[in-house]
Amino acid sequence: MRRCFVSITTKNYHYLSVLLSNSISEFSSYPIHIFCINYNPKKEGLEMPSGAIFHEIEYDINENGTPFNYVEGGNFYVDRRNLRSFQIMTRKSEACLRVLDMGYDECCFIDGDSIACPNIDEIFSYSDKIKSTPLMTKGPHEFVMVTDDDGNVRGNPFEGCWPERDLTKTIEYPLMKFFQVPIESRDEYRTGNLFLFNQGCKEFLIVLEEVLNVLWKVVDVYEYSPFQDESVMNTLVWKNGGGGLPMSYINIEGMDTVLHFFQNPEEVESGLISSFYRIPENKRDIKVLHGEKRKQEVETIIEYLKELKNKGYYDNGTEEETPEN
């Protein structure tokens, strides 16, 4: 069974792909293919760690600006109103199709601002559940919401009807209606930063690629697909029957979140800890740490994970013998 990881990046964030590759190289037995949007790292003399294979994607980006254009606590986050960020993030489907064309049987897409945990290869244990759609990971929220131009929150299915819910108020409903997805077909919401796919998903990925290539040209994507490819992927997965991975990552904000997760005191139960940080019932389900973009923080976290592995944390599947710092 040929397996690999796949990710995308731009030149400005090449360093993140290097850090991700370092964690994959450290903890996985499989290679990672990095697809570089509109640049060639070899020609430009950029770092290319062993175990990572780099490819160039040429794509006409028609919008000036940056996909990450504001800073919060030292990390930068996607501006979902920026059309350029939509164009860049939607190159995932092209990258996935290209690795399938290379002959890989099973693949895992992983966002560039991610760190693989020592149990990362366990993600492939779910591969037998793949039918014809990628298995996206469950996220920290059942419903995601955005703020409209008037400052109003959009996407709350409980607005005006609590404790009942009206799914026509969700942010995916305009796409569901366009794709003729019955409202009762809506499954759990899942995120696009981590997902499994195989050769059986090729037709799905081709349709996804076609939709994403056109969508930003004909509609306001903040209205129809505010979470970029993720909104479209969820809608198409629901159209095809739903299903996916358990929550397989946590969002982190530096080493503090990592220490809290691995040294979680007994009195702190699973659940939502902060806006985007949720602890699952089974912490061993977590295969990826997501969202940290500061180089020094990522390097520190990888060293901490190596220490966890060396102390046997991942050998017995328990939370015993966790390093204190």
3D architecture notes:
This protein has 325 residues and is of the alpha/beta class. It has a domain at 3-139 and 191-239: Spore Coat Polysaccharide Biosynthesis Protein SpsA, Chain A (Alpha-Beta Complex). The chain is 29% helix and 19% strand. Helix 3 (92-101) packs antiparallel against helix 5 (202-218) and helix 5 packs across helix 7. The two termini are 38 Å apart.
The CATH architecture assignment of the domain at 3-139 and 191-239 turns out to be Alpha-Beta Complex
Following the backbone from N to C, one meets helices and strands in this order, namely EHEEEEHHEEEEEHEHHHEHEEEH
Report on the biggest sheet.
6 strands, mixed
CATH class of the domain at 3-139 and 191-239: Alpha Beta
- Number of contiguous helices: 9
Q: How much helical structure, as a percent, in the residues? A: 25-40%
By CATH's scheme, which homologous superfamily of the domain at 3-139 and 191-239 applies? Spore Coat Polysaccharide Biosynthesis Protein SpsA, Chain A
From the 3D structure, determine the CATH topology of the domain at 3-139 and 191-239: Spore Coat Polysaccharide Biosynthesis Protein SpsA, Chain A
List unreliable stretches of 5+ residues: 318-325
Strand order in space, largest sheet: 3-2-1-6-11-8
The portion of residues forming beta strands comes to 15-25%
Please tell me how large the radius of gyration is.
19 Å
Could you tell me the number of beta strands? 15
